[in-house]
Design brief:
By secondary structure, the chain is mainly α. Helix content is about 65%, strand content about 0%. Helix 2 (about 20-40) packs across helix 3 (about 45-60) and helix 2 (about 20-40) packs across helix 4 (about 70-90). The protein is globular and about 55 Å long. The N and C termini lie far apart (about 50 Å).
Length: about 180
């Protein structure tokens, strides 16, 4: 029997080929991975495809996983998912970046007050951002990656990352202002 609270026990069972462990791992992480994936990819069919590829990669790479304490399995599968998302977006040419001259960009207004907007509405607003903007926004704001790390991940210049984030924030701020004015 697998201890539901221990990643280490789950990994041991997975490595021994226990089919119940495969089902437990899937059920334990599918909601989390779906939420992360849907922050980057807007089409539900595409989200399912990326998740399927992610789980195939996870299950075929378990021998490479090193347990480093509780939470390390979740972090490891999250990195695999992020790599699959970026691969998907590159293969499907979803990332279209426009480099802006940072000297000519207006200074952004203060971030709009969004505390009273339901999380699902904010999530929908983020999903509506153009693919490149949404990816940079998520990598920077949610995953806390630096512009240098984002540039390396996506094969772009750091300036491109910064300008896409600027544009994403401006678009999101406009969506928030419009939502608030409609309420």
């Amino acid at each position: 029997m697998i201890n539901n609270s221990s990643e280490e026990a789950l990994v041991g069972q997975l490595r021994s080929g226990d089919d119940n462990a495969l089902r437990l791992m899937y059920s334990r992480y599918i909601r989390y991975l779906t939420a992360v994936c849907s922050r980057y990819i807007s089409g539900d069919e595409d989200v399912r495809d990326v998740l399927q590829n992610t789980f195939l990669k996870i299950f075929s790479s378990l021998d490479k996983f090193e347990f480093r304490g509780e939470g390390s399995l979740k972090a490891w599968i999250s990195r695999i998912l992020l790599n699959e998302i970026i691969t998907f977006e590159k293969q499907n040419q979803k990332l279209d970046f426009v480099e802006l001259n940072t000297e000519t960009m207006d200074t952004p207004d203060e971030d709009p007050d969004s505390f009273d907007i339901p999380p699902e509405v904010i999530h929908k607003m983020i999903r509506e951002l153009p693919d490149g903007y949404r990816t940079i926004f998520n990598l920077y704001v949610i995953e806390e990656k630096s512009h240098r790390e984002i540039a390396q991940l996506l094969g772009i210049k750091e300036n491109s990352s910064a300008s896409q984030l600027y544009r994403a924030k401006a678009m999101l701020a406009e969506k928030i202002r419009n939502y608030k004015s409609d309420q």
